[in-house]
Amino acid sequence: MPLEKRLHQMLAPEAWPGAGLSPLNRITCLLITIASVIAILETESTVRALTPAFFDGAEMVLGTIFTVEYVVRVYAAGGDPRYHGLVGRLRYIVSPLAIIDLLAIAPMLLTVVSTDTLLLRVCRLMRILRVAKLGRYSTATAHLLEAIRVRRYELTLSGALAAFTLIASASLMYIAEADAQPQAFGSIPRALWWSIATLTTVGYGDVYPMTVFGRILAGVTAIAAIGLIAMPTGILASAFSDVFQRERAAREQRGAARTATLEPSP
User: CA torsion, points 10, 15, 17, 23, in degrees to nearest 10?
Assistant: First the structure.
C-alpha cells in the first residue's frame, strides 16, 4: 500500500478499517487535551510565574508536533480521491478541518515573530481553541453537521422568524417607551438590546418597560420567545433522531453482511 494511503487510513477517522480511532489518532486526541489544559492554566499569572520555562517549552514542543501533523495530513490527504494531486491538496488546505489545524499551529508561529502583549493574549486564546481539533474524531460532530444540513431550510425559516420578531418588538417598544426612557429606548437600535435579552429568555433586568403598553408588549414578547426558542430545538431533535436511526440501520446492515460472509456456504 502506498505511504500516503497508509497515512490516510491512520489519520482520517472515516478511513480507519478498525473499530474506533487508530492508535495515532488516539495519541493526537491526548495531545490536544494536554495542550488545551496547559493553555488554560497559562492564563493564570500566578501559575505561570511558578514555572514560565515549562509553559514556553511545552508550547514549543506541542506546536512542533501539531506542525508536523499538519504537514503529514496535507500529504496524506492525497489518499482520498477528492484531494488527489496538487489541486486536490490545495482544495484540502482550504477545507474547514484543515483551517482549524492551521489555526492550531498559528500561536507558536506568531509568538516567535512578535512580543506584542495583545497579540500574545490572542495567541493564548487560539491555543485553547485547539480543542476544536477534536471535532474531526467525533461521530457526534458528524451527526450534528448532517442534522443541520438536512434541516437547513427549516432552521433558516425559524431564524428569519426570530429576526422579524426581534425587530418588530424593538420597534414597538421604541414607540411605547421612547418618551419615558430615552436612554434605553430612544431608538430602535437601543431597544434591540432589550429585545435580544427578552427573546433569548435571559432577562438581565438592566432595561425594562415602565409604561402600561410597554409592559403588555413585554409580556407578549416573552411568551412568543418561548415558542421561538423551542422551534429550532424541536427541528434539531427530530433531525438528530433521523440521523441516528439511519446510522443504526446502516450499522445493522453492515453487521448482517459481515455475518453472512463468515457463514459457510452449504
Answer: 30
Cα separation, 124 vs 7, in Å, equals: 30
How far is the first Cα of the chain from the last one, in angstroms, to the nearest whole number? 35
User: Which domains are seen in the chain, by residue range?
Assistant: 3-137 (1.20.120.350), 152-262 (1.10.287.70)
HSE-CB for 7 with a 13 A CA cutoff: 14
Based on the number of CB atoms within 10 Å of its own CB, is 78 exposed (0-12), middle (13-18) or buried (19 or more)? buried
Residue 20 falls in which region: left (phi positive, over 0), alpha (psi -120 to 50) or beta: left
Q: How far apart are CA 124 and CA 40, in angstroms?
A: 8
Residues across the chain? 266
How do the pLDDT tens digits run along the chain, 266 residues long? Answer: 678 888 888 888 777 777 677 888 888 888 888 888 888 888 888 888 888 889 888 888 888 888 898 899 888 888 888 888 888 889 888 888 888 888 777 777 666 555 555 666 666 666 666 776 766 666 666 777 788 888 888 888 888 988 999 999 999 999 999 999 999 899 999 999 999 988 888 878 888 899 999 999 999 998 888 888 888 888 888 888 887 787 777 767 766 666 666 555 55
Determine contact, residues 184/197, Cβ cutoff 8 Å. Answer: no
Using CA atoms, how far residue 30 sits from 37, 48, 52, 152, in Å, is 11, 22, 23, 34
pTM: 0.61
- Alpha-carbon distance of 156 to 109, in angstroms, equals 38
- What is d(CA 2, CA 107) in angstroms, rounded to the nearest whole number? 33
Q: 5 is written with which cell numbers?
A: 494511503
